[in-house]
Amino acid sequence: MAPLNVGVIGTGIFATDRHLPSYQEMSDDFKVVAAFNRTKSKALKFAELAGLPEEKVYDDLKGIVNDPEVQMLDMLLPAQFNLDTVKHAIGAGKPILLEKPIAATMAQAREVVKLADSVDIPIGIAENWLYLPCIDVAKPLLEKIGPIVAFTHNSTGPFVTQNKYLSTSWRQNPEHIGGFLSDGGVHQLALVTELVGEIACVSALTRQVRKESGTVDIVFSTVEMKDSDIIGTFTYGSAFGATDKSVFLKIYGRNGTVVVELSDKKKPVVKVRYGSSAEECSAEEVHDVPLDDTFGVNAEFQNFREAVTKKDKKLFRSTPRVAFHHLACVAAFLESSDKNGDHVKVETI
């Protein structure tokens, strides 16, 4: 089967550092054939890396969307542009993969879901954490420690002054709700909800620790899950002073505990202990997780390709409806904090 021709909309940091290398690593399945940036000089720089001729470089969105050679659109623009770009893609009949979060506001997110539901072409949200290998390792272990009763998710770390992503103006002056809480938090929520289920309601407090974040940048919350009695805590933020980087999800069952440990991205592990009490506690088992240098991006792209080539949007896991829930959780955190930690239901669709 011939490679799927990709048009890249937005040629910034992640497009250059991860999306393009992924496409090049999977050259039998993908071929970048066009690029867009409102600042054409940036698109030209990307084109050099991608081996594109200048005539395939656009500073007009409609130009790349309607390029007859482009079979799939990969969009990496600020979230406030997602809705309008989806409309253009649908008008051209082109499948599109949108960078997370799904939108800048819940109203926009709801409209993206509505549009995606109305057409047969695949429309996906690039939430690569849904494809982390640790999920496949942990899921069968959860069945052995059940029933699940609670969890603790913690993703915290020190402020990095040389963070290349923080240097982008749209992150420093975010139009998307929650700023870094939605930009990075939806990844964390993807991991939690994939293993524990959807969140029904939250009680949360948020704060802005760093002026460079542009808005609130940490959240501490308690949550109650949908369709189960599971309760948990969700803590996220990397705006603190000197401390260890910590990323883990600890899931408590009546018959044991599973810990997904991602603090060291190069050495992810899943740990489990069995037993219904302290007296019956087994020795800890450590399950190695296959190392994925792309952190789920390659698997995500392959899943989207499958949906496009088989013309079946249901094959793609990271749908707008899934991503809507993750952003809705962030919106609930913010609303709860505005109400001094009051219980808030997560918006549904």
TrEMBL record:
GO cellular component labels? cytoplasm; fungal biofilm matrix
Transmembrane segments in this chain: where? none
Q: Which GO terms describe its biological process?
A: NADPH regeneration
Supply one GO molecular-function term.
nucleotide binding
Q: What is this protein called?
A: Gfo/Idh/MocA-like oxidoreductase N-terminal domain-containing protein
**What organism does this protein naturally occur in?**
Candida glabrata (strain ATCC 2001 / BCRC 20586 / JCM 3761 / NBRC 0622 / NRRL Y-65 / CBS 138)
Among InterPro entries, the record links this protein to: Gfo/Idh/MocA-like_OxRdtase_C, Gfo/Idh/MocA-like_OxRdtase_N, NAD(P)-bd_dom_sf
Where do the Gfo/Idh/MocA-like oxidoreductase C-terminal domain residues begin and end? 143-345
Q: Which residues form the Gfo/Idh/MocA-like oxidoreductase N-terminal domain?
A: 4-118
Pfam families per the record? GFO_IDH_MocA (PF01408), GFO_IDH_MocA_C (PF02894)
